[in-house]
UniProtKB/TrEMBL annotation:
The lineage of its organism: Bacteria, Bacillati, Actinomycetota, Actinomycetes, Streptosporangiales. The keyword Repressor does not apply. PROSITE patterns: HTH_ARSR_2. SUPFAM superfamilies: Winged helix' DNA-binding domain. Transmembrane segments: none annotated. It comes from Actinoallomurus acaciae. Residues 1-108 form the HTH arsR-type domain. This is ArsR/SmtB family transcription factor. SMART domains: HTH_ARSR (SM00418). Keywords: DNA-binding, Transcription, Transcription regulation. Pfam families: HTH_20.
């Protein structure tokens, strides 16, 4: 399965977001996903399996629990592919950063000017 086929599903993207914060049990992932998406535990397990089979997540047993974590290798491949397109948004983000910095400088100057 292609990386974007795996990442194209909002449930799987949300699971990866949860796992990005650190290793989680399948039960913890399932509880959040069931609440947010209203899907069954077997459906969440299927999404976890797709992530695992696609290489985006790893699982390790700990007693009776299964702990899931992000595997960053496929994400690096996606990042490399997106690299060809960064030139379209990077200048805009750089310009935004410049404007934000300019606004912060102006706000810092205002109290000084009011005191004089």
């Amino acid at each position: 399965m292609h990386a974007f086929d795996v990442l194209g599903d909002p449930v799987r993207r949300r699971i990866l977001e949860l796992l990005a914060d650190g290793e989680k049990t399948s039960g913890a992932v399932c509880a959040v996903i069931q609440e947010e998406f209203g899907i069954s535990q077997p459906a969440v397990s299927q999404h976890l399996r797709v992530l695992r089979d696609g290489g985006f997540a790893t699982v390790r047993p700990e007693g009776t629990r299964r702990l899931y974590a992000v595997n960053s290798a496929p994400l690096r491949e996606v990042d490399e592919w997106l690299g060809r397109f960064r030139r379209y948004w990077t200048p805009h983000l750089d310009a935004l950063a410049t404007e934000l910095a300019r606004g912060r400088r102006e706000r810092r100057r205002q109290p000084q000017e009011e005191e004089q």
